Amino acid sequence: MERPPRPKIKDAPGLKWRWRARSGRWVPYWVPRDDAVKRGYPSGTVSLDSLWDGTEASAIVIASRCKQLQTTMLHWLAGDRLNSLAFDGTIGSALDLYERHPDSPFHKLKPGSRHPYSVYLRRLRSHIGEASVAMTSGPDVMRWWKVWTDGGRKLAAGSFAVAVLKEAMKFGALCRYEPCRDLLFILRELSFPKPAPRDKVMTAEHVEAVRAAAHANGNPSRALAYAFQFETALRQWDVIGQWYPLDYPITSDVIGPRGKWHGLRWSNIDEHMILRFRPSKTDATTGAEVVIDLKLCPMVLEEIARVPPEKRVGPVVVYERTRLPYTQSEFWYGWRKDRKGTGIGPDVWSRDLRASAVTEATRAGSNLDDAAKVAGHSTKRTTAKVYDRARLEAARRFQEARLTGRHKSGT
């Protein structure tokens, strides 16, 4: 099939055409200037495909939209950030408002949550950014959901896309934009198939093997992290910590190229080997603190014994190569490297160690109340003394049940 000539539209700054071989047609995009991209302009490339039908009328609409996008970019380059946040009725502008407004709850997201939100905001902006909020109906969202899930094969992706879109509309509604309020109502009324919960579980034998692999690969820090995740049931991002922007309202004395770090420190472990730690997920909500007796965590004790006493200061898990705590990508890369040859499948994630801990305990007879306390899921608030005692006793029963189960199986 011979490629038709590229369409031409006058007075459309930033307009670019890209050939799509699969559909056999040219697709219009607005593309920000290189200098704006280098300075961090957040909008990115915008698809104008929904506006183009080959007619002169659609060409006029595209030219008008390009001028609007170009003006917004120029305002941004000139430092007029508030003007560039004006809601213009499109889903793209509502997404921009949510991501960039100084009072948006987006800025309160922890790094582990902010990254996937940013990824999906870009995807939504590219796919439906030009759609009108006021004109979007339930069937429109249902049709988009089929694209986001690749025809229903990727339910988790569809669920997250809907969740991000809903958060953006919620903030738009709080800013008194009526179309956002209407679309938020529609989104809340819609229901979609949910992805099945993860069911990947590792055994103590798997954890022993992956710890050995981490040591063989020259990274005992990851072996220590795996031991903490599995034995204490702490979340991965609490064990290795998270890197926050420098302006994030959290105190830290660990500063690096990625910002400032907050996570598990040696000072969280007292002289009796009792770990007290407030998980990041509950820090801003219930304030629930996890209390663990590490004397009942043999894998952790084995790994701690390898760390010289004089090095037990600051962050517990420090990457040997950078001498700083891991970034998420560094740790994930290391996990993929360590699990090879251990019998752990490629569909098993390092964060599954936490769920594996709870599974091992409940299978061995630990009650769910104890498991909830150890995992930091309780919402009860009592005095600090009773709070510590209840959680410590729960943690001891939890660990003892696990060790009994291991001994019975001969591990």
From TrEMBL:
One of its GO terms (molecular function) is DNA binding. Keywords: DNA recombination. Residues 197-403 form the Tyr recombinase domain. It comes from the Bacteria. It comes from Chelatococcus composti. This is Integrase. It holds the Pfam family Phage_integrase. The lineage of its organism: Bacteria, Pseudomonadati, Pseudomonadota, Alphaproteobacteria, Hyphomicrobiales. GO terms for biological process: DNA integration; DNA recombination.
